[in-house]
Specification:
Elements (H helix, E strand, L loop, with lengths): L4 E6 L6 H15 L2 E5 H6 L6 E2 L4 H4 L2 E6 L1 H11 L6 E5 L14 H10 L2 E6 L2 E5 L5 E4 L2 E6 L6 E7 L2 E8 L1 E5 L7 H4 L11 E7 L9 E4 L4 E7 L5 E5 L4 E4 L4 E6 L4 E6 L4 H9 L9
Parallel strand pairs: 1-2, 1-4, 2-3, 4-5
Antiparallel strand pairs: 6-19, 7-8, 7-18, 9-12, 9-16, 10-11, 10-15, 12-13, 13-14, 15-18, 16-17
Length: 289
């Protein structure tokens, strides 16, 4: 079934964003779909007539095209989390683990989607609630509780279903989804998890013990993390590296699976393992280049 409407979320600071959007508009004329653009981006690029408010994109578009790096795709996920739409990531950044298409293959990707040669992959999300205030944040990649730029270590006590798991002494703790396993959690020594798995990875950040390792929980786990020792430190709760909530000593955060998944486009012509090999340079000896 042919698509009828496309919404664009983009990083206007990327030098090739204007050209990418021009090509999306030309594809729309050729394939028969309309295009609306996030208002701030439309204003920045001089196409204000196509702009709509971010919260309106899901209502106006069947498909969201996110043009930028992983941060832009994560922003598209936050914008559409209330009313999920398939998201096609076009990588204008460096690594781009979440992106399904390169700029060179943009038209090919849109043609495949228009023919129906794609699937939407439901990617689980996480929700973190600050118990003392009720403030809630949502993430596709990860929830992080960590110190700010101070050099002091902090102490975080984690429980699962009321059972004490561990008290982490170090720089903080990452709770990642399978989608986020190739992000910050990977840098902290966590495992790579296939995106359609349903689980939560807890990866400590610079733990003050060589025996403290990442641990994997089932997706139905409810994890309570208490700031146990950080009287003189500034502790921050972040979701996908964006919303920041300060946490005082003694505060508790409850992390669980989010109520709604994010829908990411997987083209018929691509494979997750291709992405891993390409992005992580598996099987390549750079010294032989």
């Amino acid at each position: 079934m042919a698509i009828e409407s496309v919404g664009v979320v983009a990083n206007a600071d990327k030098p090739n964003t204007r050209d990418i959007i021009r090509r999306i508009l030309l594809s729309g004329e050729r394939l028969g779909f309309s295009v609306v653009i996030e208002a701030e981006v439309a204003d920045a690029l001089g196409c204000r007539s196509l702009g709509v408010a971010s919260e309106e994109l899901s209502k106006r578009a069947e498909l969201i095209v996110a043009c930028g790096g992983d941060g832009t795709i994560l922003r598209a996920a936050r914008i559409t989390m209330g009313a999920p739409r398939p998201i096609l990531g076009v990588n204008l950044g460096r690594l781009g683990f979440l992106a399904e298409a390169s700029p060179e293959k943009l038209e090919q990707a849109l043609e495949e989607i228009n023919r129906g040669d794609f699937v939407t992959e439901p990617r689980m999300t996480l929700t973190a609630t600050v118990v003392g205030t009720g403030e809630t944040v949502h993430a596709l990649n990860d929830i992080t509780i960590a110190k700010s730029n101070q050099s002091r270590i902090i102490s975080l006590e984690m429980r699962e279903a009321g059972n004490w798991v561990n008290t982490y002494i170090g720089d903080g703790l990452i709770l990642a989804t399978p989608t986020g396993s190739t992000g910050y959690a990977l840098a902290a020594g966590g495992p790579i998890v296939k995106p359609l798995a349903e689980l939560i990875v807890a990866a400590p950040i610079c733990p003050h013990s060589l025996t403290v390792r990442p641990i994997v929980f089932p997706d139905e786990a409810v994890l309570d993390i208490r700031v146990a020792g950080a009287a003189e430190s500034v502790i921050l709760l972040t979701a996908d590296g964006q919303p920041t909530v300060p946490l005082p000593s003694g505060e508790e955060v409850r992390v669980r699976r989010g109520a709604k998944d994010v829908q990411l486009v997987r083209l018929a012509s691509s494979s997750y393992y291709d992405t891993l090999r390409q992005k992580l340079h598996w099987g390549l000896d750079k010294n032989l280049r």
